[in-house]
Amino acid sequence: MEDKDKNNKKLYYSISEVAAMFNLNESTLRFWEKEFNIIRPRKTGKGTRFYKTEDIEAIRLVYFLVKERGMTLAGARQKLKDNKETTVKQEEIVNRLKQIKAELLSIRDAFDSIESES
């Protein structure tokens, strides 16, 4: 679907687009959908999935717990059930720190290239 919102982002993403965002197999996303009730993509009559931003954020949380923190699916499910807000905040903090690290490395690289030109 090519519907776009005011921020020029798509309203819906295909399963292949979402899988590429997280470097996951489509089958993993379908499995996570069954395991985590917070992932609820819209489905057409033929079963084609379309993911909204909320679904992508839910996948980001599951990815953080399972792939980055190394939790089991059961552990991740329990963590989201017991304390979703804290998990959301932790993921946001980790994500922001990754962005800051990337910015700092970019600045360092820029300084290195300036020094090498001197």
Q: Your description of this structure?
A:
It is a single chain. The protein starts with 12 loop residues before the first strand and ends with a helix. It has 118 residues and is mostly helical. The N terminus is likely disordered. Strands 1-3-2 form a 3-stranded antiparallel sheet. The protein is built from 4 helices and 3 strands; from the N terminus they run βααββαα. A hairpin with a 5-residue loop joins strand 2 and strand 3. The chain has a single domain, classed as Multidrug-efflux Transporter Regulator, Chain: A, Domain 2. 67% of the residues lie in helices and 6% in strands.
In short:
This protein has one domain (13-117): Multidrug-efflux Transporter Regulator, Chain: A, Domain 2. The chain is 67% helix and 6% strand. The chain has helices at 15-22, 26-35, 53-68, 73-117; strands spanning 13-14, 42-43, 49-51.
Biggest sheet architecture: 3 strands, antiparallel
- Cα-to-Cα separation, first versus last residue: 51 Å
Helix content: 55-70%
Order the strands across the largest sheet as they lie in space.
1-3-2
Arithmetic mean of pLDDT: 87
CATH class bucket: Mainly Alpha
> What count of domains describes the coordinates?
1
Please state the overall shape, judged from the principal axes of the Cα atoms: globular
How many beta-strand runs? 3
* Number of helices, where a helix is a run of at least 4 consecutive DSSP H or I residues: 4
